[in-house]
Amino acid sequence: RRVVVLISGNGSNLQALIDAQGHDELGGEIVAVVSNEPEAYGLTRAREAGIDAVVLPHREYENRDAYDGALIKVIERHEPDLVVLAGFMRILTPRFVQRFLGRLINIHPSLLPAYQGLDTHARALADGVAEHGCSVHFVTEELDGGPVLLQAVVEVAEGETEESLKQKVHAREHLIYPIAVKWCLEGRLRFSGEGATFDGTPL
Ligand code: GRF
């Protein structure tokens, strides 16, 4: 099974997926990493793992639709079973989402549907929540609104700062993303149109 990962930055989630693949725990192979940012450190991570690293700078395209058209081409060249967004900081057009619907997933640093959008940790802290976390979800046209596949919860401690909370959540992201990818590739987690379904196999 073939996986394409889209990134814009550091790529620590990408690294978690690469490491899982190295331990035969991904259920497939990352065949390409695509970044819209030429300087993204995740590209180095990909190259060091011997994975095809593709730079597709959005600044070279006239508009979102032209960019997403080019992105679709690059991705389809690699014939993926699953397209994984790992810190890809661009809003995707409906056309792109429709093209990969049901095989396009994202990780978001909050317990969705709470805190869609940016600055999730600061907003959660400001609200004084007791629990925060991260979610893997299918991507639909509604930003951060698609069906959730898997979540991890962290407790918000006394004296928690935005940075400490971010680090805690990030560590959980690295745990759950490879699992979610594996279950998607195995067909255990599926997009049903209505939501995400789990096939009920004991874990
Ligand atoms: C993560 O916080 C993820 O939840 C969000 O973007 C960030 C990517 O971090 N979608 P990294 O590049 O994987 O380190």
TrEMBL record:
Superkingdom of source: Bacteria
Sites annotated Raises pKa of active site His: D144
The enzyme's E.C. designation: 2.1.2.2
Sequence positions that bind N(1)-(5-phospho-beta-D-ribosyl)glycinamide: G11, S12, N13
Family the entry assigns: Belongs to the GART family.
Reactions this protein catalyses: N(1)-(5-phospho-beta-D-ribosyl)glycinamide + (6R)-10-formyltetrahydrofolate = N(2)-formyl-N(1)-(5-phospho-beta-D-ribosyl)glycinamide + (6S)-5,6,7,8-tetrahydrofolate + H(+)
Chain sites annotated for binding (6R)-10-formyltetrahydrofolate: R64, M89, R90, I91, L92, N106
Single GO term (MF): phosphoribosylglycinamide formyltransferase activity
Protein name per UniProt: Phosphoribosylglycinamide formyltransferase
Transmembrane segments annotated in the record for this chain: none
Pathway, per record: Purine metabolism; IMP biosynthesis via de novo pathway; N(2)-formyl-N(1)-(5-phospho-D-ribosyl)glycinamide from N(1)-(5-phospho-D-ribosyl)glycinamide (10-formyl THF route): step 1/1
Organism in which the protein naturally occurs: Halomonas shengliensis
GO CC, any one term: cytosol
Active site per UniProt: H108 (proton donor)
Domain Formyl transferase N-terminal: 2-180
Keywords, comma-separated and alphabetical: Purine biosynthesis, Transferase
Broad EC category: transferase
Function recorded in the entry: Catalyzes the transfer of a formyl group from 10-formyltetrahydrofolate to 5-phospho-ribosyl-glycinamide (GAR), producing 5-phospho-ribosyl-N-formylglycinamide (FGAR) and tetrahydrofolate.
GO biological process, one term: 'de novo' IMP biosynthetic process
